[in-house]
Amino acid sequence: MSAVELDTDTAVLSKHHHRWTEEAAVYGYPAIRLAGAFAVVWFSSNAPSKPRLFSGILSALVSAFLVYTFLEPLFLPNDTSMAFLNILTLMGGCVGMSLGVLLPSFFSGICFGTSVALLVASFLNLPQALLFPFLGGALALAFSFLAAHSRTKVFATMATCLEGGAFAAALVVKPMFPFLKDVAKGHPYNPSETDSIYLAQLTPEKRIFLGCLWIAAALLVAASAAYRDGHYESLNLWAAFRTGYTPIPSKDDQNGSSTKPSFTPNPPPESLDVFNMFNPADLPPRLAEYANMVYSACEDLGNFFGFQDSSVRNQAEHLLILLSNNRRYMSSHILPPSVQPPSPIHALHAKVFSNYVKWCRAMGVAPHFSKLNTSMNAPPAVASRVVDLVLFFCIWGEGANLRHMSECVWFLYHKMMEEHIQSEGYTQTRSLYAGHFLDYVVTPIFEVVEQNMKSKADHDERKNYDDFNEFFWSRECLQYHYSSFKPDPNDMEEFGSSYGPLPGETILPVAEGLAASPKTFLEKRSWLRGIMALSRILEWHIVTFYLLAAAAFARELVWGWVYSLQVASGVFWLFNALHLTWALLEVWAIYPGIQLSGTAVCGSVFVLVARFLTLVYQTLYLMWAFSPQKGVYLGIEAEPVFWWWQYIWLSLIVMIPYVVETFVQIVPSLSTRIYTSQNDYVQSFLNILYPLSRLYVGKEVHESFRHTIVYVTFWVTLMAWKLFFSYVFEVNSMVLPSLQLADDYVNYPDQSFAKMFLLLSMRWLPQFIVYLIDMSIWYAAWQAFAGTSVGFSDHLGDVRSIDDIRNNFGRAPEHFCKKMLSSDAGSRRGSSASFLGSGNNISEGTSLLGSDPHKLQSYVNRLLDVRIQKWVMFSAAWNEIIDHFREEDIISNTESDNLKFSQFDGFSQAIYLPVFQTAGAIDDVLAELQRPADEYTNPRTGAYTDESFFKPITEHVTMQTAVAEVWELGSFLFAKILGPVHAKDVQAILAMVNKWTENEEITANMKLEKIKIVFTPFVELVNILEKGMKKRTPLARGKDPSVRNKETKPKPSTPGVRRVVSAGSLATLDTDNKAREVPQVAAIEETVVIVDAVRDQVRDKLRNLTHGLKAMLKNTAVESDGRDVLDRLTFLGSMENGFFWDDYYASSQLDDIAKNDTFKGVLKKIYGLVCMHPDDAEPKSKEARRRLTFFVNSLFMDMPDAPSIHDMFSWNVLTPFYSEDVLYSKADLERRTDALGE
User: What is the dihedral of CA 814, 817, 822, 824, to 10 degrees?
Assistant: First the structure.
């Protein structure tokens, strides 16, 4: 194909394309506009069925039209100004829609009046700029007044016909919209070229045609509405003035939920002479003290209000038990006499009715309490409080699920007590059947609640507990009567004046008011809900992003600080625009399911109007401040800086709420004082501008100033770092590309502003999204830094392994008792004699055994020691945890024994540390005792003391405790093995060693560096006993030793000394008045040979142990104490009827201790102390390790102290719900019901 042919084809295609474009412009676009006009007509015809929705749409159209029409001449003729004009038009439309939704009747009239004024002005030949404003304002006020006092549906329909017709006509005829704009400006027939563009080309006939076209389109909309509605009554103007104002029905009204609940009274229950726990005829003394007053009040109130007899008896017992429990406040150990209540009744009354008093304060009414009762045999102040308590608990007892609605319970009490007070004199004559209260008070309210709870409708069409509670937080509830019972007028004499509506009430029961009450909260399922929830975060990001961008452009373009400040001041416009956006979203959130109070609506209207008007003037001032030259605006000729200062002063007013909110955030207690203030001006201000302040919940919840400072510091540092990072890597890098993209638009006048704006938006949008997202990244990093610093300061996570548990085990009981037990848990009297006082703190270096671990004390005295109490309580919890581990089979029996604390009755210590804690500690002790002498001796004299020698051991709590346990348990083991024959010698040796320890003379009398020669056979002895005692059975023996002694013939005693007595003890034998009588050697007639390998091994190890002990003694030739110990050790090994030589006696001793449970426990404990490696004593299960480390770690966390025992809920009776099972067996109570436990 040649180039000529190609050019020809291209020309043909271009010609066809041009022809198609012309045909589309001639036929296509008009067809689309015509279709759009018919769509508008058809949509507008639906106005009668949705008046509130169309009120918002009509208000939006009128607001947008007026904003654009009257603000357009004030804006500079450039693209940027026009863009802001469009933004204001959009915001004006949204504000108008919100106002129309909030006040549908009022704004329907305004829209209708404005449309009528515009229609009339289009036919009048009056070239006045103020014609439409005056005429439109007058008609808008007039019709709004009429609409407020008539049916909203009529005015909404008429306004929709006019505005829908105008919109449809504007779609069909292009000049329609400019025509209406010029009519609104006031020059319809002789416009100048600068004021009007379209109307200068229109003849009067064409202008009249446009007005008639509007009327025709409006009639078409009206006909469509009448057709869709099915009748023409909605267009009957006369009907609008024949009826009064009718509120817009809510969804609950449309669904019929406001109908009166139907119920059938329950038959009166039979009276049963039963009781719960205490027989009323035989009450304990503590309960009988107030029984007469309580039972008397129960009888009167039960008859007066018709409570069930069994319920009244149940609550009477309930109240008596509570009064008995509140007697504890009369003790000086709990409350000082200056603050003690006069009686338990006063204490319980103040506690029970504290929330009722707050409810009355929020409702603005005085609380109702019984008058001083002089009929009872009690002080009037006490008797009246008993009546209050009885009435409340009777209401609460029969309230069933209404107990969950505490506000409803207070409402019932308030109304019933008011009736009881006003019916004084009729209380003895009025008697309702038992069950009347349940039938006519509880049942109607419960049926309303049940109907909504069981409804299958969506959340926006049914009410929940929060909505019902909010009804009882409004003063409207006080207008209803509490009961649904309506007595026959002929029977009113029977009830006297005690029945019927109270002052300020209607005859309607509260159940009907509750059914007709609107929803107070509705959460729409929309993405806008997420934006609304994150509004403060989004606002902060948008504002800071703008400031960073302004700083980056100022740095790149080298702006002066004055111009840079002016550009940065645009942030005030952003603040106001965003605040207005959030206000619009709040209106969107409440439409259409929530009906606001009058003050809330006024507050929303005020905020929307004030914010929008401020935004309009901010936009104008800021635009004129950046104008290139001096100009005349609003009749004022001034420099641009003048308008910038006007913008600043106006913006300061906008920023006042932000400043107040910032100050309240820094001082949170100030918000509580503002919310709870009783000042009428403050409350009026809050009710109008902050409707949520009317909610009761959360008004008195705030953090301390110290916590707030820490919180603010965290966020300020985080945001400072984020802003710095984002400026450098996200914002500053976008300045040059943005300048290059905007260069063509700035330098060439034919460039499109929309194209340039689209390109810049596409360039900056990813950066802004990253700017939004990276906040979470920096928050995670900052949270990690803050958490790490807090963890280091609070030692969180220090316990990560079993070794860490060992290192921190000494601190665990103190933290356990402080955080898990109340301050009076360990006191003997439950008062100030608390073992958790500040003066009894145990340090990590303090031994479990006190200041002197070697001094034996009785078990009782040790248990009373404060530090031992803490360890005992901690050991109980620790052992319980280990037992649960064993029940779950994550540890074995041996591991359980190694992990648990040990207790032995009759021993000096209350508890003994777990084996896993002390295993291997003795090896460390031996290493310290065998260290070089120059580490503990005096360099000049070479002498040393017990303190210097044992210093490494006494400074280590675990080694010190292990030594004490080995000494006590080993002594017990040694004494039990040797038996009663050697008891005196063993006790004397142990007493002497204890004496040396107390007097710090142990190093002067023993060679402790040779401790290894004693400890080695001791370890071997424990190993032999551990293995041999498990399966030991009694061996076959000969005759009993006592029988043998009777059959033997002893030889006459001869003077002299036995060969086993040492030479060094001769002087002792001659001078000691208590010298031991040397047993005579008896000739044994029969020889019994007993084969016992364990016995022989034990003998061998004991001989080595005694030889080692003798080798450790010092100065036995000089010191009498050492010589006596040496003699007794020698005597132990030489007694023929003792353990070392008498086979029968030795085997019998081993048989006896093999059956002794205490000996087995001590042996197991000491085996772990001296024979086990630390790794062998640890649990092998990873789950057990994880749980133990978590538990010990949690003890060192920052948690509130445990409350006092006196703050515990007191024991009372069981009050069931309606038809609820209340009898359970022990197996039912202990049976697990969770899925994992089944």
Answer: -70
Dihedral angle of Cα 1022, 1026, 1031, 1035, to the nearest 10 degrees: 10
CB 689 within 8 A of CB 606: yes
Could you tell me which of 771, 875, 881 has the C-alpha nearest to residue 817?
875
Examine the domain organization and report whether 169 and 302 are in the same domain.
Answer: no
- Cβ pair 215, 223 in contact under 8 A: no
- Exposed, middle or buried: residue 922 (CB in 10 Å: 0-12, 13-18, 19+)? buried
Domain final residue pick, 1125, 1144, 1171: 1171
Query: Distance between CA 876 and CA 899 in Å, rounded?
Result: 12
Within-domain flag for 447: yes
What pLDDT sits at residue 1013?
86
**574-596 exposure pattern, b = at least 16 Cβ within 10 A, e = fewer:** ebbbbbbbbbbbbbbbbbbbbbb
Dihedral angle over CA of 688, 690, 694, 696, nearest 10: -170
> What is the SS3 assignment for 912?
strand
186 and 304 fall within a common domain: no
> Do 182 and 299 share a structural domain?
no
The helix or strand, by DSSP H or E, that contains position 786, with its residue range, turns out to be helix 753-794
- pLDDT for the residue 240: 44
Q: Examine the domain organization and report whether 481 and 371 are in the same domain.
A: yes
Q: What pLDDT score does 865 carry?
A: 61
Could you tell me if residue 635 is left (phi over 0), alpha (psi between -120 and 50 degrees) or otherwise beta?
A: left
pTM over 0.85: no
Residue 650 exposure: Cα atoms within 13 Å on the Cβ side: 23
* pLDDT score, position 49: 78
Q: Examine the domain organization and report whether 44 and 166 are in the same domain.
A: yes
Residue 1227 has what pLDDT?
75
φ, ψ at 759 (rounded to 5°): -65, -45
Residue with tokens 């439309």: 93
Question: Residue 637: which H helix or E strand, with range?
Answer: strand 636-638
Say if 814 falls within a structural domain: no
> Distance of CA 161 to CAs 156, 176, 214, 240, Å?
9, 16, 10, 16
Contact between 702 and 763 (Cβ < 8 Å): no
| DSSP state letter for 931 | S
- Claim to verify: residue 57 and residue 168 sit in the same structural domain: yes
Tally the domains of the chain.
Answer: 3
Q: Give CA–CA dist 749/629, Å, rounded.
A: 20
Give CA–CA dist 453/433, Å, rounded.
30
**Last residue of one domain, picked from the residues 1138, 1171, 1204:** 1171
User: Phi and psi of 509, rounded to 5°?
Assistant: -75, 160
Closest Cα partner for 894 from 905, 882, 903?
Answer: 882
Closest CA to 1024 of 1134, 1107, 1102, 925: 1102
**180 in a structural domain:** yes
Same domain as 185, residue 301: no
Structure token pair of residue 406: 């505490």
d(CA 677, CA 699): 10
Residues 903, 908, 909, CA angle at the centre, nearest 5°? 45
Q: Tell me the pLDDT tens digit for each residue of 1128-1157.
A: 888 877 788 888 888 888 888 888 888 888
Contacts of 1042 (CB under 8 A, 6+ apart): none
* Pair 301, 412: CB distance under 8 Å: no
| Residue 154 domain boundaries | 11-190
Those residues of the chain that have pLDDT short of 50 are 1, 3-4, 6, 12-13, 16-17, 189-200, 232, 234-235, 237-266, 268-272, 491-497, 827-864, 1038-1087, 1235-1238
Angstrom distance (rounded) from CA 448 to CA 454: 10
- For residue 530, what are the CA distances in angstroms to 533, 589, 1236? 5, 11, 36
Same domain, 1100 and 965: yes
Please indicate, yes or no, if residue 82 is contained in any of the structural domains.
yes
Q: How many beta carbons lie within 10 A of that of residue 264, not counting itself? A: 7
Which tokens in the block code for residue 177? 């919209």
